[in-house]
Amino acid sequence: MDGNLKQEIIETVVAQDGFKIIRDEATRIFKMETLENCFSLANEFYKSKQFQVQVLGVFLFGYIANKNKNALLFLKETVSQNEDWRVQEILAMAFDSFCKANGYEQSVPVMEEWLSSEYANTRRAVTEGLRIWTSRPFFKEHPEKAIALVAPLRNDESEYVRKSVGNALKDISKKHRELLVAELKTWDSSDKRSNQVYKLATKYIK
């Protein structure tokens, strides 16, 4: 990519408040550049002090992560440490992009790995990124697997993660009430963290 086009793209995304055009620019780069160039550009963009350009890099990492292990690792270990909540929202979207390209069923081991991460943002990228879980391929046919992946984080130390878990389970309850009710019956009602998730998860059940 020549310098003029790169600068044009940067100027375009910096002028944006929303994420759609930034994602569109990332998609355009992904389609016209090699995997190697995309990885290089993603790294360069992420180093920017402007969050819109950082976000452009995160989108790109998500697009190539199924073919580039270093991109996936960068999302998991580095982007998850970014303090800007807007970047964390895109991390969740980037993880879903990885799962979509890699195949949701095939990505379950990676989901399990991320869900056990020491970093709260990494865990949340999974619980939030795949919402609505049962609208995703594989989980649409296997809602019980979605519940099995998400529910163990009901007593996560991070309230940020717990809220995402509660909302994810609430989403699932719309079409799979009985499955969620059966899961909730196994929870320890004396656990304060779990109760917070329970209240969110049962919003459409009561």
Provide mean pLDDT, rounded: 96
Q: Which CATH class of the largest domain applies here?
A: Mainly Alpha
State the separation between the terminal residues, measured CA to CA. Answer: 55 Å
> What does the radius of gyration come to?
18 Å
Oligomer: single chain
- Helical proportion? 55-70%
Describe this structure as you would to a colleague.
It is a single chain. Helix content is 67%, strand content 0%. With 206 residues, the chain is mainly alpha-helical. The longest helix has 18 residues. The protein is elongated, with a radius of gyration of 18 Å. The model has no long low-confidence stretch (mean pLDDT 96).
Topology, pairings included?
Layout (H helix, E strand, L loop, with lengths): L2 H12 L5 H13 L2 H12 L4 H14 L4 H9 L7 H18 L5 H8 L4 H10 L13 H8 L8 H15 L3 H8 L7 H10 L5
Helix pairs in contact: 2-4, 3-4, 4-5, 4-6, 6-8, 8-10, 9-10, 10-12
